[in-house]
Amino acid sequence: MPFERTEAALDVAGVGHSFGPRRALDDCSFVVPAGAVTALVGRNGAGKSTLLRAAAGLLRPDRGRVRVFGEVAGDASLPAIGYVGQHAPLYPMLTVAQTLALGGRLNPRWDAAYARRLADDAALPSGARVGTLAPGRRARLALVMALAKRPGLLLLDEPLAPLDPVARTEVTGALMAEVAGRGTTVVLSSHVVADIDGVCDRVVVLADGRVRLAADVDQALATHLVAVGAGSEVGALDGTAIVEARAVGRDATALVRSAEPVGSLAWHRPTLEELLLGYLRAPGPEPERKVTLA
């Protein structure tokens, strides 16, 4: 039965968290609608893992709140969440079969037949101990454990990083089947644009612990343009919401928040990669500014 909820699957409001003097998250706010596939994009150290741990109820942020289907993230929300951490934590001494059996004992909505099918599709040997599996296979097993829980919200921290190209395609297919068949909401983190292009319908960009962009992918692409021209012309775009600009010799390119071209520059719609890299490279939390080109 599909997981049907009318509330936002994930509601992050004013979340901040520090580890000693280091601020990992700073006033992060965004909403993930139920049924969406959302990419959480950022460089290494941007705060993606910290944010996903807060969403999973494994970390209580210093400030703000996180709600999952209307419940404050924590014990009450755990049955609705499937979470795969970056290092796929599993019990290394258990076999694959024992790991799946443990999942059945711990999760009331566990789908044993689905778990077995996913494990067979991933060619996971039942008798092999988890600690002897290659990193890619351990990652596949961790994903099986999360999916077979039949969660309403699936939180995946760099799920494709340890996988070879064939396994990436298989995992992406399994995720899309889960979304299509059950309406599962997925939030997956990545710093590789190719992993999410064509997969996600929403995107959240994190940089230095702050949300730089949170939007529907199609809408974001339709409301941004890339300007290309002489550096002096691009630098003269005063009053335009310039997200990021770069000089290459005498020429320059700029990612601009605008639905219509301005002036006589050459313009084109950004690719998803151009859009995300522009926000990731933008030096400040506020993208709208006058730009000076070197």
TrEMBL record:
The organism's lineage? Bacteria, Bacillati, Actinomycetota, Actinomycetes, Micromonosporales
- Name recorded for this polypeptide: ABC-2 type transport system ATP-binding protein
Task: Select a single GO molecular function from the record's annotations and give it.
Answer: ATP hydrolysis activity
Keyword check for ATP-binding:
yes
**Pfam families the record matches:** ABC_tran
Which keywords does the record carry?
ATP-binding, Nucleotide-binding
In this chain the ABC transporter domain maps to: 10-233
Species this chain originates from: Pseudosporangium ferrugineum
Report the InterPro entries cross-referenced here. Answer: AAA+_ATPase, ABC_transporter-like_ATP-bd, P-loop_NTPase
Superkingdom of this protein's organism: Bacteria
Q: Show the PANTHER family listed in the entry.
A: ABC TRANSPORTER ATP-BINDING PROTEIN YTRB, SKFA PEPTIDE EXPORT ATP-BINDING PROTEIN SKFE
